[in-house]
C-alpha cells in the first residue's frame, strides 16, 4: 500500500490545477440566500450615498461550500449597483476597495459594470482604497470620478501575470507519466505535466503583452499620466499612497470619511446625508468599516488557522499582485 502513496499525492496535487487563478473550493461559506437590504451606517440628513465593499481575490466564480455557495465579488458588486441605481435618493456611490486583484476577466467585468453604471445613472463614483488596491483592484477603480487612497494603501502593480504550476519534476521522481493525444501541435501548451517549450513561452508572452496593453491604455485614458510616469507604471511595481499621488494614480490621500465628503460634493448632497450599505444581516452598532457581507477571498482553514500556504497556485491569466494574495 505504501508504494502507492507517491502516486496518490501527485494525483491530489493535480486536482488543484484546473483553470483559474485561485482555489474555488470552500468547506464552509457564510449564508448568501437572503436578499440584500439597506442599512444606514452614517449620517442623518436627506439624500444617500451607497457604500459598496469590494474585497479579496476578484473572480466571477462563487466559492463552493458543502452547504451553500457564496456570491462572487463580481456578482455582489452588480447586486449592489442595481440597488443603488433603483433608488432615486442615492446620489453617489463610494466603492471601498481592499483587493490585490484577481482574474483578468473578473477585473474587466467590474470595470465595465462601474463604467456602465455611471453612463446609465449619471451618479458619481468615488473609490476609497484601504490596505491594498493593486492590479485588478486598481483596474476596477479606474472608472471612478475620484480616487482616495488611505495613507497606508499599497496600489499599482499594473500588469499581467500568468501562473502555471509544474508537476513534471515531481512526477519524474515518483515514476508517474501522462500520455497525451492531441489534434494540434499547441493543444496542450501550458500543460503542468511537461516543461514549457521556447515557442510556447513566446506564445504566452504574446498573450500577456496583449492583455497588459489593454490595462495600460485604460490607465492612460483615465489618469492621463506623463510619458515618464506611464513608463514607471508599466514596470508593474507597487506604490505607497504618497508615491501613487505623486505619479498620478490617485487623486487624494485620506480616509473613508474624505471619500464620503467628495461624493457629497460631486452629487450636491447635504453635508450630513445618509450613508447606506446593502447587507443580508442586521449587525448591532453598524458602521462603514463593517465588511461582513462583502464577498470574501478563499482561505482554506485548518482548525480556524489560515492554511492557504499548503495549496499550489492555479493556472490562469491574472491582473493580480501576488504579494497581496495571501494577506
Short description:
This protein is α/β, with parallel strands linked by helices and 327 residues long. Helices cover 33% and strands 22% of the residues.
Walk me through the topology.
Blueprint: H1 5-14, E1 37-42, E2 45-55, H2 73-86, E3 90-99, E4 101-103, H3 104-121, E5 125-134, H4 136-141, E6 146-149, E7 154-156, E8 161-163, H5 168-174, H6 198-223, H7 227-233, E9 238-240, H8 241-247, E10 252-253, H9 256-267, E11 273-279, E12 301-302, E13 305-306, E14 316-320
Parallel strand pairs: 2-3, 2-11, 3-5, 5-6, 5-7, 6-10
Antiparallel strand pairs: 1-11, 4-14, 7-9, 8-14, 12-13
Descriptive notes:
The protein has helices at 5-14, 73-86, 104-121, 136-141, 168-174, 198-223, 227-233, 241-247, 256-267; strands spanning 37-42, 45-55, 90-99, 101-103, 125-134, 146-149, 154-156, 161-163, 238-240, 252-253, 273-279, 301-302, 305-306, 316-320. It has one domain: 2-enoyl-CoA Hydratase, Chain A, domain 1 (Alpha-Beta Complex). By secondary structure, the protein is an alpha/beta fold. 33% of the residues lie in helices and 22% in strands. The protein has 9 helices and 14 strands.
